[in-house]
Amino acid sequence: MNVNPASMAAPRLEIRNLMREYEGRMVVDDVSLKVQAGQVTCLLGPSGCGKSTTLRMIAGVDMQDSGEIYVDGNLICDTVFRIPPERRQIGLMFQDFALFPHLSVADNVAFGLRTGTKAERRARVSELLERVDLLRHIDDYPHHLSGGEQQRVALARALAPRPRIMLMDEPFSGLDNRLRDGIRDDTLRLLKEENAAVVLVTHEPEEAMRMADEIALMRRGRIVQQGAPYNVYTRPVDKATMSFFSDVNVLQSTVQGALANTPFGQFLAPGLGDGTRVDIAFRPQHVRIDFFRNGNTPLPTPSDGVPVRGVVERARFLGHESLVEFRVDFDDSVRLKATVPNVFLPKAGREMWLTVPRQRCFVFPASDETSASFRD
Which CATH number fits domain 247-374: 3.30.980.10, 3.40.50.620, 2.40.50.140, 3.40.50.2000? Predict the structure, then answer.
């Protein structure tokens, strides 16, 4: 049997069971991660979940309480042995760019180069500035550049020493939204060309989905789900994970005979015992809308379940889609959201039929959050 040598190679970066406590609070709690060369992994999560602390421990500017860090299979840090940050061959990028205002663009990019002749260093600087389309600014100073241009200089500087690992902490958060997508795409292309292992910290799900080969979703110091963006989005481990990526409609029910009953029909709840409270969660883009015709209820289908009458409360156009909010028959306090591509702005008070495809719904053990409740 032929074995791909690359599949047997040690990860470019591996962290094992990292723990970090501050003032009695566990900020990073048993975090493990592997990142291959050329792979972009996003540490995604809300502020305070431990992602930036994890990044600082990898960089060597913070020390873990326990756990180990390896680069290309070699230990670089545990609680006894520690290679200093400047010898780890790790590049760093932060949201404030941290360029030296008194140095030219060329000197900023060359700052981390410690080997080679002056001509070789200049050649490396010119190569990188050309790849980020800034060679014309090689002798300018940072204050002459826009925010997007400064970000690209910071990227070139971080890549100049050819780091094996690139750590990026919210590097695009200070950029104008109009520039951000293009700069993210250019950054991703350059990182892939350099074949560095990349760990990107962000609190923005859209950014993680756009940039990452793999997402590690963090909550309260732990990685709660890890995988390809598509899998994390379409197979969330719990309602909180699902809600982090998008708005979610939630109905509540109680399991009887491995089924959860709702006005939209019954949903399978395998493995959950009778009496278990559950949340049935579905995204607004998966709500199907049909016009209300002469009071006739559409026939239920095996895949879409039972239609429910909804009354439009308000509709808004969001640029690429429309958001419609409904009041529903079964509980006047419940509001369901639906998104529709392009322009769809029915007037308030319009009656419509709503269905929810079963394959787009998730059944989770109930949280303590308030939601619509249905019991047999």
Answer: 2.40.50.140
H or E element, residue 193: helix 177-194
Q: Does 369 have pLDDT greater than 80?
A: no
Q: Are 92 and 167 in contact (CB under 8 A)?
A: yes
134-169 pLDDT, tens digit per residue, is: 999 999 999 999 988 998 999 999 999 999 999 999
Burial class (CB in 10 A: 0-12, 13-18, 19+), 271: exposed
Per-residue pLDDT at 1 exceeds 50: no
**Three-class secondary structure of residue 102 per DSSP:** coil
pLDDT band at residue 295 under the 50/70/90 scheme:
low
Q: Which two tokens stand for residue 312?
A: 């439009």
Where is 180: in which H helix or E strand? helix 177-194
Q: How many CB atoms lie within 10 A of CB 332?
A: 9
Q: Spell out the residues 6+ positions from residue 263 whose beta carbon is closer than 8 angstroms to its own.
A: 251, 306, 308, 328, 329, 330, 374
Q: What is the pLDDT of residues 168-205, one digit of tens each?
A: 999 888 788 778 888 888 888 899 999 999 999 999 99
Long-range CB contacts for residues 24-31, cutoff 8 Å, separation at least 24: 26/221, 27/53, 27/221, 28/53, 28/54, 28/57, 28/64, 28/221, 29/220, 29/221, 29/222, 30/67, 30/222, 31/67, 31/218, 31/221, 31/222, 31/223
